[in-house]
Amino acid sequence: MTKDRESLLAGYRLEDQVGFHLRRAGQRHGAIFASYMQDLTPTQWAALVKLAEFESVSQNLLGRETAMDGATIKGVVDRLVKRGLAATAHDPTDGRRMLVSITPEGLDAVARGVQPAAAITEETLQPLDSAERRLLLNLLQRIA
Known about the structure:
12% strand; 144 residues; 3-stranded antiparallel beta sheet
């Protein structure tokens, strides 16, 4: 590396950056997820699991519960509705609010997906022992 490039980078190495490793870990997890759940995306799965917890929830709250912005959760909900896994209705007390609920087909998808979802987590964390797994999850929660 030339002196000019050394001064330009000022000791910065991509391989030492947290974002680089988070992205690589996310790519690995995404590939594992896709190998187990060919018919659902991670965001669709997250929304379905949260919908299974609630009888009915506003689209806005569903987005907050799943860490998705408004545009993302709207697209996810639209795709789930199109597939018959969720249903939407206007809130009778506030017509501006959209309520989302899980359908019986959505509940079936969750029931079928829980075991593969647990296997996805297990395979993603496989290189770590149980103490490292707890530490990683704790640290990720602290920086999220």
